[in-house]
Design brief:
four-stranded antiparallel beta sheet, 36% helix, Dna Ligase, domain 1, disordered C terminus, D-amino Acid Aminotransferase, Chain A, domain 1, six-stranded antiparallel beta sheet, Rossmann fold, alpha+beta, elongated
């Protein structure tokens, strides 16, 4: 779960990390009043859960309250398309009005969980203000990482290593160590998966300030963080992903045209890999789980059909606890109710698979049944039109 910038800064502030003074606004009048509190110049930031806002016109420097009000009116109620938001963009429902901070330097400081090391890892660079992915690609030697042992926490010598990587000394190094310890405590106590301060700026009179911040919380730990969970902004989520979460299955929207419905994360990844290998593009990651019932299967199929980007649906089930005849029964119910126009490829193997195939062969419409994984994949890709083959020509 991602937090908006203003929410992330509220959390940082609770842990004693300096942030700019600011106010949130939901309309032009609130933005005007917030800018007047600032006393003149201010920075207006669109609050969406996507990076790249500045390049997309979502961060605006204003010289007077009236200018801030007009800028807020242009952003609020509209969608902002960034390099990370997708072509539809994300709705701007709130803007953050902050004081203008004049930095001497811009730095980068982040924390994440690195699975290979099984540790929380700090990343620091004296070149903040740019995408860390871009910096890692062009100047990887300018990013220093430090893995923290969970038994000891951040040690003083590690804080000094990170301070040197940031180019800090003296009181700024002391302040940075204090910020790092607070960030580590925040990361652990709030079950974070990512904290990123970019840029963290050096100012002449106030030292270090978190000028921008990203905070993500581990979804699997939200039950322990009810106050954080209450901050979720569903307007920033894909409607199909919202439906999947309510139904209780795992779903991630992708940019392809082949909708994949699978039971088990491993089989789901193998299915997506096969689609890609054969020249197609998966439209989603959809795992109904190994113990799904007929209702959940039906909801998952309907979700695939409601995705306008899906040109062909591939149902790939390995029956164990989830019996293949239960899947067939759910599919027949959807076919009878919805009469979908897109091709449907079905591969059923495992418990009661023969019974399931008999049910589908006698159903109200013809689906493309294939028991072998590779041929089923080729059939799905061909049916999507990605290979130029005639539908059903795969073997």
């Amino acid at each position: 779960m991602k937090l908006h910038e203003y929410q992330a800064k509220q959390v940082l502030s609770q842990y004693g990390i300096p942030v700019p003074e600011g106010h949130i606004a939901a309309n032009q009048q609130e933005a005007l009043e917030a800018a007047r509190i600032r006393g003149g110049k201010s920075i207006l930031k669109a609050q969406i859960l996507s990076g790249g806002r500045g390049k997309a016109g979502g961060i605006i420097a204003t010289d007077c309250p009236e200018e801030a009000g007009h800028a807020a009116a242009r952003l609020l109620g509209n969608s902002l398309v960034t390099g990370q938001s997708g072509p539809q963009g994300l709705p701007v429902n709130l803007v953050l009005i902050e004081e203008q901070v004049i930095p001497d330097r811009e730095l980068y400081l982040g924390l994440l969980v690195e699975p290979s090391r099984k540790r929380i890892v700090f990343m620091a660079s004296a070149r903040g203000g740019m995408d860390i992915e871009e910096l890692a690609g062009t100047h990887p030697d300018e990013i220093v990482s430090v893995a923290v042992d969970p038994l000891t926490g951040l040690l003083p010598y590690q804080a000094r290593v990170l301070a040197r990587a940031l180019g800090l000394s003296g009181q700024l190094a002391v302040q940075s160590a204090r910020i790092m310890r607070a960030l580590y405590r925040l990361f652990v106590e709030k079950d974070c998966s990512l904290i990123e301060i970019n840029p963290m700026v050096v100012t002449e009179d106030r030292g270090l300030i978190a000028l921008d911040a990203k905070v993500s919380i581990d979804d699997n730990a939200l039950y322990r963080q009810p106050e954080i969970a209450a901050l979720a902004d569903i307007s920033q989520e894909d409607p199909l992903e919202q439906r999947a979460a309510q139904a209780g299955f795992s779903y991630v929207k992708l940019d392809g045209s082949i909708g994949c419905l699978v039971n088990g994360a491993g089989l789901a990844m193998a299915t997506m890999d096969l689609v890609t290998l054969l020249g197609g593009r998966p439209a989603n990651f959809l795992d109904v789980g190994g113990a799904a019932d007929e209702l959940r299967i039906r909801q998952a199929i309907e979700l695939l059909l409601d995705d306008r980007d899906v040109k062909v649906a591939w149902i790939n089930i390995f029956g164990g606890i989830l019996r293949c005849d239960v899947v067939a029964k759910a599919l027949l119910r959807v076919l009878e109710d919805r009469h979908p126009a897109i091709p449907i490829v079905v591969r059923l193997q495992g418990t009661n698979d023969a019974k399931a195939r008999d049910m589908l062969n006698s159903g109200p419409m013809t689906v493309m049944l294939e028991t072998e994984l590779g041929r089923a994949g080729r059939l799905a890709v061909a049916a999507s039109g990605m290979t130029g083959k005639k539908r059903g020509a795969a073997s």
